Amino acid sequence: MKFGVITFPGSNCDDDLIYSLQNNLGQEVVNLWHKDRDLQSSDVVFLPGGFSYGDYLRSGAIARFSPIMEEVVAHANKGGYVIGICNGFQMLTESGLLDGALLRNDSMNFVCKNVFVRPVSKTAKITAGLEDRAYKVPIAHAEGNFYCSEDVKKKLEDNDQILFRYCNEEGLFTPESNPNGSLDNIAGITNSGKNVFGMMPHPERAADEILGNIDGKTILEMIL
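Below the sequence we write its predicted structure tokens.
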């Protein structure tokens, strides 16, 4: 498989993703620039974390208008795989490729720490093969509070589109394990076609033995 990782002004997790995909998963990776109009035949396109365009207006709101996003939307609409992590998740909701919105954390603070998430969807490729347990992955965001209407939430549940929920170390979905106030502890979702994925936690930051945690590598391996 060929992976494309897009760099936007203000991205700061693009190199982390490239490193993880190349060195931890042994994959071919091309670094794409936000002004490009060619995905270079990438099978999977990643929108990385960071603070694109300084997070002005709303996180991901300006990046949604970068020239390359026209190609990302077209790729997704043709069934191509697109994965947004943190700021990339925000871009996907701003682009309309994913439902809902990422609001300010309920604490009104930037949160940077390890959390636990548990896979939910049994039909999305990125979670279907994962063990039903808690996975430790880091988060780093100020606007990770997932919100949607009750109608949209019902659709996400009925179509098995919820990828991950925040949980405690034992895998229980509790209010205390929700780091940002997300509706129903939702940490990631997919679209109805299950080819566009968004999640707030950073699996690429937990994908190397030297970090003492490879739960993120296990999640990334599901893409393969």
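The two ends are 8 Å apart (CA to CA).
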